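During the reporting period the student researcher (J.K.) took over the structure-prediction task from the postdoctoral fellow and processed the backlog of single-chain submissions. One of the processed entries is reproduced below for the supervisory committee.
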Amino acid sequence: MWPAPSSLLAGSLPLLVGLGLATSAHAFTPSGSDIVYDVDDESFEGYLATADGDSRGTVLIIHDWNGLDDYERQRADMLAAEGYDAFAVDLFGQGNRPESTEDRQAATRALYSDRERMRRLTLAGLAQAREQGAAEATVIMGYCFGGAVALEIARSDEADAIAGYTSFHGNLGTPEEQAWPDDVPQLLIAHGAADSSVTMGDVATLVEELEAVEATYEIQIYSGAPHGFTVFGDDRYRERADERSWSAFLDLLEEVL
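J.K. obtained the following structure tokens:
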């Protein structure tokens, strides 16, 4: 991923400058640690950034369809600067960071078609974060494909000590065989109004599902924002939508952790 522009949230700007992210002329230098761990004899490589000072809780970050890279590492470092432990989970396997559209589609399709494995690998990443000393109380969040995974875990109700879930421009559909539990933790959905991949009809359907179980949720819709509007340096990046969605996410963390 490309480095962040200099006009991110004012509260995070000193961190970004310190990391050398203020302009695209500087490369991102992670301040956390890559963590190799095994799940059922397969090797995976996550990323851990620990809180500056006493931890206020943990954020589990789930990557997009290109796998865990410096984008998730950067977000983890930003969260650590806010006082949270952050662990970016790896769902593709160590060294598997697909570059072509076809390979990325194949990697995500494999997990969409095997949701039990999707959940198992996500929960294994959560367990690894806690083994590394991350605080137990956790919010699970993800970007695009990762946002869909976060909602998958929310529907499953299989994770322990989860205080909330967040999806940034993620797939919002509920598989036919699934339903939302009555006691799902608080949800934040950040969605772009110009997203042609996930439509406003999908948003409306999710609202109906969440209202049916009386869930506590917030859906923020950002004008002119396409799919992937938080991706630094990409043509789809929308500064206003990124800043406001990140601020809303920090508000959620403040409230539930």
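The committee noted the following: Confidence is low (pLDDT under 50) at residues 1-26.
J.K. will present the remaining backlog at the next meeting.
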